[in-house]
Amino acid sequence: MPPRAPSHLPPSATAAAARNGAGPVPTRLQAWLARLPRSVRFVLTGGLNTGLTYGLYLVLLAPLGYRWAYGLAFVAGIALSYAMLRWLVFRAPGRRHAWALVAATQLGQFVVGLAVVELWVAVLGWPSSLAALASVAVCVPLTYAVHRWVFRAGVA
Which superkingdom is the protein from (predicted)? Predict the structure, then answer.
C-alpha cells in the first residue's frame, strides 16, 4: 500500500502529485506551501525567482558583461518560473506546451510592463522612481490570471 499524504493537504494536491510522478508524499516545502492560498504561493515564488535570477545576474556580470548576464538570467528565470508554477504554485502539469505559454507570458509581461513605465513617466509625467511599482501592480494580477489558465487542473 502506498504511503498516505499528510491530512492537512487537500486531496487535489495528493492527486496532482501522483499524476506528476512526485508520489503521494510531498516535500516539506510543498506541504508548507499547500497550506497557503494559491495567490500567496504565486507571489512568494515570484519573489524567490526574482531574487535567484538577480543573484545569477550579479554572478555572471563580471565575466560576461551586462547584456549576456541579463539575457542568461532572464532565460533561467523563465525556466525557474515554469518549474515553480508547475510544482509549487498550481501543482498541475498544465496545458499542452505549458512551458512555451509560460515563456510567452513572461515576454508579454516585459512588454506590458515597459508600456506601463512609459505611460507613467512620458505621458502622465509621474515620478520615474515609482514607475516600476506601477508596472508590478498591473503585471502581477495579469500574469497570475494567465498562469492560472495555463495550469488549470484537469487540462493536459
Answer: Bacteria
SS3 for the chain is CCCCCCCCCCHHHHHHHHHCCCCCCCCHHHHHHHCCCHHHHHHHHHHHHHHHHHHHHHHHHHHHHHHHHHHHHHHHHHHHHHHHHHHHHCCCCCCCCHHHHHHHHHHHHHHHHHHHHHHHHHHCCCCHHHHHHHHHHHHHHHHHHHHHHHCCCCCC
pLDDT tens across 30-43, in order? 788 889 999 999 99
